[in-house]
Amino acid sequence: MKPFRVLTVAMALTFAGSSAAFAKQAAQAPKPAAPAQTPQTQAPPPAPPKPTTPGAYEETVVVSASKTEQKIVDAPATMTVFTPMMLENTPSVSYADLLRGVPGVNVTQFSARDMNITSRAATSSLATGQLAVLDGRSLYQDFFGFVMWDFMPADLNEIKQIEVIRGPASAVWGANALSGVVNIITKSPREMRGGHVSMGVGTFNKEVTKGDGAKSGNMFFVNGTLADAINKDWSYKLSAGYSQTDAFARPTGLIPNGGTTSYPSFTNEGTKQPKFEARLDRDFTNGQKLTFSAGTGATSGIMETGLGPFRIDSGTRMSFGKVGYNNKAFHAQAFLNVLDGQAPGLLASDTAGQPVQFLFNTKTFDFEAGDSRAIGKNVLTYGGNIRYNKFNLTLAPGETSRSEGGGYVQDELFLSDYVRLVAGARLDKFSSISKAVFSPRIALVLKPAAAQTVRVSYNRAFRAPSLINNNLDVTITNPFPLSALNPALAGKFFLVPTHASGNKDLTEEHVDAFELSYTGKLTERTLLSVAYYMNKAKNEIFFTVAENYGLTTPPPGWTSLSIFPNVPTAIGTWSAVQKSANFPKEFTYKNLGTQTNQGLEIGLESGVGEDMTFYANYSYQAQPKPEFPGLTETQALAEVNLPAKHRFNYGITSSIWRIFYSMNASFVGKAFWQDVLDARYNGETSRYAVTNLVIGTVLKGKTTVQIRVNNISNAKVQQHIFGDIMKRQIVAELKINMPKK
Length: 741
Fold this sequence. Notes:
Largest sheet: 22 strands, antiparallel, barrel
CATH architecture: Beta Barrel
CATH class: Mainly Beta
Strand content: over 45%
Structural class: mainly beta
Helix content: under 10%
Number of strands: 40
Shape: globular
């Protein structure tokens, strides 16, 4: 589909939907009101109005788009929201399954614990562009720039709302919201008074090829919460959980790229994740609120990187402490994240042939404050934060600390009942970047009716180079089997060294994002969203081969091997080996020119009858257009991942008497991957379709028994060329609710 055809379709659907709705509704857009009591997500906002009937989606209140409360149809950014009703009985068994249903969001799951998410662009191993926030506390790991989804709440019963901004959002969220934001808001203690216990046990298929004799894997989890109000001022919540999943199956045979490289053999790992959190709230009679929370969580399992898989050892832990204050529209919060652990390489060995050891200890302190107020026909929102990181990383010993700070201001101007202008900007300064970074946003919001919105917007987002990007310093080896030269040398290897280094001269990468979108209520119970976007990334940071060994310049030690009678023979043999293997000599990070991504997203949510809801969405992502100086088009495409062009999701939820069921399905087209190890391991994953189902019953006393089946057809699903194989999972769950009146 050509770009102009995509734009034409988007505009036609947008204005057709808007016109149809306007013919039915003459309701005017509301006049500006005083800002809401909680203008952001640092403390959970008041519960959004619950739809009286399925499909009253325009009433959903969001806080992520501008850090101030507003209805989803009024937000200046395209968003997807998961409400408690959607989360309660979702067939999804993980955040990967849940977020895969969002239009424009690409999700890959590598292993039992390793998942990566990117909006409106190809995702990758250790995806660095997506910000994840839990009650205002960032889960973004600053030392590299990725999210460890392990530390999200394990029990969906704790979550009030998940808000997903589908596109860059640096103007209010800062450096790390390059491709989008996933904002998770949990319930307050007063909203969860009583006790809740959920537990489940399941099994999954590990058969890669029919009849290979692989035993099924097992999974288990248990979660519990206890919350109550001590008196009219104080309330508390305690939550704890534990989950355990065996390793998924590994792919076998040759990498499906037409070459002769096999999938490397290593011991795969499952994951174990214990968690605990405590929260104490102080509610004042004048509307002020104090929130104290602290917790800890551990994880283990496989983490894929550009250097191959690392095993996060058991005991790797992230702990936090947080305090927040709200007074009407003003908010302030401070948090401390501490990550401590180690991860030995499973394929990456040092020059002595021993596994590369990655030990990491990081501390992140962040303070943020902001406010929002109405001034005439304007709603002004402003704030900022300061952040300090302390690092101790064995793979990047060259730097031990960083600081950053930034501030933002945004004005929503009500030009008329039908037209609003949202303009804002943020300025950030990093100790690792010489100049301050400016991130503007402007959106024209047209309101032909109260429940209809057409947006035309531009915003810029950026990501600063991480500590690893700047300071990586490690030498790994690629084992070459000498039996390929002489069968008598079976079991003996020559270790070809490759140095991986950071780049102190990197500049920030940024994205200029343009969007035309529509969100509106077409009928009393149907919401339609359409978005066309074009994102132009500049100075993207890639981990790439800086230099290969030459045909006549073998690695150190090659010419002195005793199997060669003389140096010319050794060099001639190396030339033949290198023509086939193309061993890299140096990896590094580089800013590589520009890359353009564009696409179309269409989503529909509707109520059918009194007890049924339905959704469907489609995403088209055009092939990226990289323009890297010094590289041909083919060479440039080989440096980037290519997302699936077509993605389709649908789901249905219904209940009859005490029986309920929910089903969803996802179709994902083929994609190309090049971000783990070197070109020998690059390749394309096949398209796949997955259908998930949950069916259950509500017993007396608010006890629920249900069965979840993920990947009903038992399809062989590999979401990344180097990732695990995922097949059918069956989980039996018991939920016991003990609410306190």
